[in-house]
Amino acid sequence: MEETFDVIILGAGAAGLTAGIYTSRAKLSTLILNEGAIGGQMTLTNEIANYPGVHTTSGYALATTMKEQAKSFGCKIKSNVSINSYDLQSDIKTIQLANGQVFKGKSIIIAAGGVPRTLPIPGEEQFRGKGISFCATCDGEFFTDKEVVVVGGGNSALEEAVSLSKHARKITIVHQFDHFQAFKHAIQDAESNPKINFIMQSELREFRGNLNLESVLVEHLPTGEKQVIKTDGVFLFIGYTPKTEAFKEILPLNTRGEIPVDAEMKTSIDGVFAAGDCIAKRYRQVTTSVAEGTIAALSVAEYLNKKN
Question: d(Cα 22, Cα 32) in Å, to the nearest integer?
Answer without folding.
Answer: 12
